[in-house]
Amino acid sequence: MDEVEFWTSDRIRSEFFNYFRNKNHTFVPSSSTIPLNDPSLLFANAGMNQFKPIFLGTVDPRSEMATLKRAFNSQKCVRAGGKHNDLDNIGKSSYHHTFFEMLGNWSFGDYFKKESIAQSWEVLTAVYKLPKDQIYATYFEGDAENGLEPDLEAKQHWLEQGMAEDHIVPGSSKDNFWEMGKTGPCGPSSEIFFDCVGGRNASHIVNQDDPNVIEIWNNVFIQFNRESDGSFRPLPSKHIDTGLGLERLVYVLQNKRSTYDTDLFLPILTQIQHLTRIRPYEGRFGSIDTDGIDTAYRIVADHVRSLTFILSDGGIPGSVGSGYVLRHILRRGALTARNKLGVTLGSFFSSLMPVVLESLGHIYPEITQRTKEMQEILDSEERAFSQILEKGEKLFQQVTSRAIQQNATEIGGGDVWRLYDTFGFPVDLTRFMAEQLGLGIDEVGFEIAKARSRESSTVSPVGLTQGVALTVHDIAYLRDNFKLEATDDASKHELSTISATVKSIVCDGRFISSTSDILSGTSTGVVLDRTNFFSESGGQIYDTGKIHIGHQCEFEVEQVHSYGGYTLHVGCVRKGTLNVGDTVTSSYDADRRTAICNNHTATHILNLSIRDVLPGPSDQKGSLVVPEKLRFDFQHDGPVALPELSKIEANSVRSITRDMQVFRGVVKLETALKIPGVRAVFGENYSDPVRVVSIGRSLDEILADIENSEWRNFSVELCGGTHVPNTAQIENFVIIEESGVAKGIRRITAVTGSEARNAIGVAVELDARLSRFEGVSAPNVAELKTLTAEITQANISVVKKNEFKERLTLLRKSMQKRLKDSQNEYLKAGVSVVQKYFEEHPNSEVYIGVLETNENPKALREIISRVGNFGQGVLSLQRKGGKQWMESVTAVIGGTNWGDEESAQGVGLNSENLVTAIEVAKKYVMTSE
Ligand SMILES: [Zn+2]
User: Which residues are in the Alanyl-transfer RNA synthetases family profile domain (predicted)?
Assistant: First the structure.
């Protein structure tokens, strides 16, 4: 049997799993490729991401994660965009991928270097039977500047395993010292390389980017914490974090020319050929791939995998962050498919996707669950891109052919900006397209053009206020030295006042036993044995309130946060002294809490109403619950139409007034997820057992008949927040805003309780004023303007506001019509006055008088033409010199005039001189005769 048949990728993966399962490691499923809880990352790029809280020492000791000692899995990783970006290498390289699987094993304060190295060696040489003389390892050579010793321990452990000394290579801190960030956990690493050629000593080309000597596994020994002063301090507990690139291991074991020739990619390449009918894949690289078709195969095969995984994890193409990268990958792939494989864009990637689902769906079932939706997103993006291409490609061709004619090596920055600004060509895409023609882009020129055409943003990002917090050392100190148990916060859902004991006080980065020596007003943190304060989590803001001892001492709580299971009350001593050991009364601001509870329960009600009213998925994408309002972000394409919004609001109000009881309970996570229609936030790390909040049906009733699809009609959510006992307490509910957050994500902002009462009150008042306007025949224009402005700015129901705006439009229309009608009346009256005058004075050649026109500037001309139409012809003033005549009149009324001898007009402000003006006009006619 040859290697490919024996070492299938499935077998390689499962042998790894079996090995670590037998070594008492727990399987922890891969985290999402989009880390929702980690704003520092665009994508999961290593298996350790989801274990950060353990390494940071901030994991809640009651959570399931805190009990983990050893773990293994296969992590879905994406390296595209951000710091770790392999996108530009794809197609050219034989072993880089934007999406890849990272096998990994972890020890959390359990085994360390020796065991980790022994396991890696055993897996590679005994399980996978790789030849020992082709394996190399690196170790950290030390960094004198930073006071770091060489990691001779690691070297020694490799020697003990039987690795030849000339296969163990020292490495610099750049390659062999791993840090999570500027501060935080870090430590030396040991990388394992495999020489695909063999029969030689390849130690001099280890870690030199030689395609034949590739890194397959990395062991990181997390033993220090980098402090903010730059120093390294040993961690309270040491950890192992390893990562083994599956694609590379498969390539080594199947003995292929590149990772693309393995069974992980071959089915995709075959399907590409089937769909495009282009020549088969031949595995050529660089200049040998003369028609670029093999490179195109690799780009498309790589990209369809990352698109599938990012989309299945809830990714949505957009213009920032991971959404931007997703869009860029699709466009890069689509362009390649069109230009090199002759694909007509529209549904190419969605037709290629099934082959990925087929080969990896059994390992990652999540990718098979929203297939239709994923394909729709792909199609709509591909179509949109095709339109952009149609419009912009002409300019791109002009620009590039000019550059080539002029022997330039790059496209001008101004042109790159124009492509972006006018046609929506992202710079990355222009760069990629230019590269295919052997051109670069003028990056500096582009930045200048961009800065010129856009107001440079002066807003600098606001840093988080560095308040009092517990560091990883503080947490370890409280736990290990002080033997302090996690704060008991069970009463946070129940009682507004409890008695508790002060366990620890933190100020200025140190623990103190009394506040007697600190200046009043200094920010201080207090840890109690038990608390009823809610610390900020799951979108719900923290409580504020007081910790006091009778009237002698008062500590004002301004913020509450949780660190590693300890609830830290942050605030200031306002009166007296607080000492460790004191018995205190802990009481939160109950009114503020009530408002928060109103808004939190209302958020659940809104969540259900949205799902009931809107077709398609409407998964929660974010939430904020504060005393003044609630904000809920959810998945939805385009604005929510008004009739639907109105229905969502009405349904929510109905649920509230139905006076339903709110139930809470703690259930096993697995059980909770079985409840039909249960709402959970995608990617959220729930504890097990988990808190469940249900409205209108008790949890007992639900659990007794858990399969009943009727539960879909009730709000059932996994939620650790605080809630009202009864929906009637919420009183009312008003949606005051509906807006977009990103493509495919909408936001609803709403108010409840007294805020809702206010909003309704304001709406009633505006309604009354509007009705008054609608009732009068000639409304005051200035007043109507004021009312319009007030309505636009009012914090009232969006639905009401829209109704008011429609009524305002009608009102304005009918006012315009009335004005026009009355102007017509005046016009008619004017015509008859003039006509009558000439009938009575058949010999007269002029009419001089005052005619009302009601603000109609064209009325006089109209009257002249209509009277003229009657055949009078008497208004001819040719011989009179119209302009001069008009001048004599406007001089009196204080205005200006225009026109010529045949016809002249003028205006003036001094209407009190009108009588005199008439006299002057008459006199002019008489004297000039
Ligand atoms: Zn909730």
Answer: 7-762
Q: Which of 714, 733, 757 is the last residue of a domain?
A: 757
Co-location of 106 and 221 in the same domain: yes
DSSP 279-315: PPP----GGGSTTSHHHHHHHHHHHHHHHHHHHHTT-
Say whether 493 counts as a known binding-site residue.
Answer: no
Taking the centre of ligand 1 as the mean of its atom positions, its distance from the CA of residue 691, in whole angstroms, is 10
CATH number of the CATH domain containing 98: 3.30.930.10
740 with 623, same domain: the answer is yes
Give kind and range of the element (H or E) at residue 755: helix 753-775
User: Is residue 188 in a domain?
Assistant: yes
**Of 588, 603, 625, which residue sits at a domain end?**
588
Q: Are residues 502 and 642 in the same domain?
A: no
Do 74 and 101 form a contact (C-beta atoms < 8 A)? Answer: yes
d(CA 214, CA 200): 15
Q: Residues 316, 321, 325, CA angle at the centre, nearest 5°?
A: 70
Domain span at residue 162?
3-264
Residues 519 and 441 in one domain: no
Q: Which residues of the chain have pLDDT under 50?
A: 1, 454-466, 871-880
Q: Assess whether 449 and 483 both reside in one domain.
A: no
> What is the CA(59)–ligand 1 centre distance, in A?
21
314/395 same-domain check: yes
Per the annotation, does 719 bind a ligand? yes
**Gap from CA of 694 to ligand 1 centroid (Å):** 10
Instruction: Tabulate helix, strand, coil % of the chain (nearest 5).
Output: 45, 20, 35
Same domain? For 566 and 664 the reply is no
**Residue 883: which residues within 8 A CB-CB, separation 6 or more?**
897, 899, 900, 901, 904
626 C-alpha to center of ligand 1: Å? 12
Using only C-alpha atoms, what is the Rg of the chain?
A: 38
163 & 252 share domain = yes
Measured in Å, residue 594 CA sits from the centre of ligand 1 at 15
* Cα 672 to middle of ligand 1, angstroms: 15
The pLDDT tens digits for 641-659 are 999 999 999 999 999 999 9
Cis bond upstream, residue 131 (ω within 30)? no
* Dist. CA 251–CA 866, nearest whole Å: 94
At 298, give phi and psi (nearest 5°).
-65, -40
pLDDT, residue 461, reads 26
Tens-digit pLDDT profile for residues 95-142? 899 999 999 999 999 999 999 999 999 999 999 999 999 999 999 999
Cβ neighbours of 357 (radius 10 Å)? 18
This prediction has a pTM of 0.59
In a domain, 159, yes or no: yes
Query: How many angstroms does the Cα of residue 454 sit away from the middle of ligand 1?
Result: 41
Q: Is residue 892 part of a domain?
A: yes
- The answer to the question of whether 597 is labelled as a binding residue is no
For 314: left if phi > 0, alpha if psi spans -120 to 50, otherwise beta; the answer is left
Predicted pLDDT at 253 = 95
Report pLDDT for 363. Answer: 94
The CATH number of the domain where 665 resides is what?
Answer: 3.30.980.10
Overall number of domains in the chain: 5
765: nearest Cα among 747, 787, 740, 748 = 787
Which has the closest alpha carbon to 84: 45, 47, 50, 123? 45
Helix 642-657 vs helix 798-840: crossing angle, to nearest 10: 130
Query: Residue 172: which of 208, 132, 210 has the closest Cα?
Result: 208
- Contact between 31 and 49 under an 8 Å Cβ cutoff? The reply is yes
> Which of these, 543, 559, 562, lies nearest to 497 by C-alpha position?
543
